[in-house]
Amino acid sequence: MIPEAFHAWIAVAATAVVFVGMQVRRSAPADLLFLFALVVVTVTGVIDSRTALAGFANPAVITIAALLAVSAGLRHTGCLDWLGEKLLGTARTEQSALRRLTAVLVAASAFLLNTALVAMMVPVVVDWCRKNHISPSRLLIPVSYLAIFGGVCTLIGTSTTLVVNGMLKSEYQLRSDATTQAEPGAISATQSEFTEQLRPMRLFELGYVGLPCAGAGVVVLLLLGRRLLPNRTDMIEQLGDSRREYLVEMLVQPTCRLIGQTVEAAGLRHLPGLFLIEIDRDGEIVTPVTPEDKIHAGDRLVFTGVVSTILDLQKIPGLVPAADHTFEFHPRAQAQRHLTEAVLSRTSPLVGRSVRNAKFRQRYHAAIVAVHRNGVRLTNKIGDIVLEPGDTLLMQTPRGFVANHRNNREFYLVSAVEGGTPRRHDRALLSGVLMLGLIVWLCLTSWLAQGGMWSGISSPAVAALAVVVAMILTRCLPVAEARGAIDLQVVIVIAAALGLGRALTDSGAAGGIAETLVNLVGEHPYLLLVVVYLLAMVFTEMITNVAVAAMLFPLAVAVAEAGGFNPRPFVMAIALAASLSFVTPIGYQTNLMVMGPGGYRPRDYLRVGLPVAFCVATTALLLLPVAWPF
After folding, report:
1. Which listed residue, of 242, 413, 432, 565, carries a Cα 20 to 30 Å from 541's Cα?
2. Residue 308 and residue 273 in contact, taking contact as beta carbons nearer than 8 Å
3. Half-sphere exposure of residue 436, counting CA atoms within 13 Å on the CB side?
4. Are 71 and 116 in contact (CB under 8 A)?
């Protein structure tokens, strides 16, 4: 076993390897680097195995995983599609869309994890951009930044604040236990006061400074965004015209929200890659379709278009494929089906038969949704199309269809369509109610006592898990989708970073660095606060935010303790600086998420993010000592 005198150096070296590794090898998996560092500090005796693994059971990690699953439930039920339609449905210009996004995203990300929110909003914004012929690069960086702004307004808006609060809770409990077990008089009043200042955050406490920071950032983004944001055409859009065009027929059910609206008002006229050919109304054919034609219950809308837009059509409640009269209209039955593409071979028994007479349902337990014929724009009704070799069928199939027919000689190719699982629109209201219930519950946890009779319901982790279970039991969220929504890499990075942070504390490395910092900067608390904030801000732009928060939290506490100051402004500085990353794509996960869809380059973040970061940092450093005096 390595002598304890070297433990601090080992902890610092392991942390440095993670920092350097993520800069030198950008492709290196972050979770592997952090696990490596955690194993090193454990096997060398810097921390014991129980301490090393405690991060995996940390309530903050569990809360983050559960909130990701809750967001998946909102997506699965179509609740988010509805919100997206309400948010951007009638916006026609870039500025009007940005104003709407600002109002909604900042408010929503205060109560939803911003990574989950951005994951849900990117497809909505990209679809709106396609419909309105606006480059996604004009809106996706603002989407990321707005979600980041809202995330610092409450405790649950971002994983960073949840991690910091989890560490606050652990530190407070550790020091409180030490005070309880100490001999009378052994703990001074100053130490007791310091321990009390490490109490966990309340739900809206961070908002004292986070809300003004968000306001300042929004003003800069709205004023300078139009001049600084790039205007690039998405690569996918450049290839859009060459994609397969299908003929699809959609039935307007009595519950559809489009009933009574004109084609223009319903948004069916400007869908990208889609053209409304005709409306079949009880045998009466309306063609050509004009923007003023109204939609009635029972109408059959015949479109020709690409798969991605057909998926968008299926997301509209009450609008279902009508190619097969035996198609499952019940939402529960639809949820068991997935969109699949298959190319007919020459030996297929379907060749030479019309879709209506092919008995596709009896033969394959599937329903034809749309048909594509290479080089030919099909214009007659799907049921009347006589199938030929090479035709591509878009089908609603059971879960095992691809596996069962992958080698079937009747098809040249069988593949699942990404994102082709139907929405459970009948559960949208219920999932929304459960989400509102979670927000109320999380608000109450800030005021409920952490022990005694309230211990079972005062934990945010328990609240989030309870709502996930409720969503699964009420069929708002399939179990498989709940598992898939949890980003294992994020969970491992956070848990391992927590263990690495404990290694820095227990080895004395954090205390030694803090003392050195105090000696270099002096004992002026404001200068120390500026240094701590800038240190966290710079590190966050280089590696993942939660890791920075977990590793610098012990340093913030140690700096305050070494100088005899209130630790709260230093801890809040870490929480804010690690959450407010704008200058690089790798600094925050949401920045990385919009990089591909927006066609961004690293210098785009530097150009747009620098003025935002400067303004937000100035606001934070001015208000931190006001909200939490030294």
Report:
1. 565
2. yes
3. 7
4. yes
Q: What is the pLDDT of residues 170-224, one digit of tens each?
A: 888 888 877 777 666 666 667 778 888 888 888 889 999 999 999 999 999 999 8
Residue 556 corresponds to which tokens in the numbers above? 């913030």
The per-residue DSSP string of 157-169 comes to: SSHHHHHHHHHHH
160 in a structural domain: no
Helix H, strand E, coil C: the string for 254-289 is: CCCCCCCCECCCCCCCCCCCEEEEEEEECCEEECCC
Helix (H/G/I), strand (E/B), else coil: 249: strand
457-466 residues labelled b (16+ CB within 10 A) or e (exposed) = ebbbbbbbbb
| Alpha-carbon span 477 to 465, nearest angstrom | 13
- Are 378 and 247 a contacting pair, CB within 8 Å? yes
What number of residues does the chain have? 630
Q: Any idea what the CATH number is for the domain that residue 374 is in? A: 3.30.70.1450
The answer to whether residue 585 sits within a structural domain is no
Task: Say how far apart CA 371 and CA 351 lie, in whole Å.
Answer: 13
| Cβ 73 vs Cβ 471: under 8 Å | yes
DSSP 48: -
Structure tokens at 563: 């100088």
Question: What does the block give as tokens for 422?
Answer: 């139907």
Neighbour count for residue 36 (Cβ, 10 Å) = 15
Number of helices (H) and strands (E), helices first, in the chain?
Answer: 26, 9
Parent domain of 290: 241-416
Phi, psi (degrees; rounded to nearest 5) at 501:
-65, -40
- 369 is a domain residue: yes
Q: Per-residue pLDDT averaged across 68-84, rounded?
A: 79
Residue reference for tokens 């994020």: 490
**Cis peptide preceding 460, ω within 30 of 0:** no
Q: What is the pLDDT of residues 422-456, one digit of tens each?
A: 677 678 888 888 988 887 887 776 565 555 556 66
β-strand partners of 338: 397
- Each residue of 505-547: pLDDT tens digit? 778 776 677 677 767 777 788 988 998 898 888 877 766 677 7
For residue 566, the SS3 value is: coil
In angstroms, the CA 529 to CA 624 distance is 9
Residue 584 DSSP SS3:
coil
- Residue 379 inside a domain? The answer is yes
Token pair recorded at residue 353: 């038969």
Residue 288 half-sphere exposure toward CB, CA atoms < 13 A: 4
CA neighbor of 334 nearest in space, from 318, 347, 312, 348: 318
Q: What is the CA radius of gyration of the chain?
A: 28
For residue 393, the cross-strand partners are 342, 371
Query: Which has the closest alpha carbon to 617: 589, 582, 568?
Result: 582
HSE of 33, CA atoms in CB hemisphere, 13 A: 23
Domain count, the chain: 1
Distance, CA of 76 to CA of 432 (rounded, Å): 12
| Residue percentage of the chain with pLDDT more than 70 | 85
Instruction: Express the helix, strand and coil content of the chain in percent, nearest 5 each.
Output: 60, 10, 30
Most confident region among 146-160, 239-253, 324-338, 363-377 by mean pLDDT? 146-160
> For residue 335, which of 433, 428, 420, 401 has the smallest C-alpha distance?
420
* DSSP state at residue 585: T
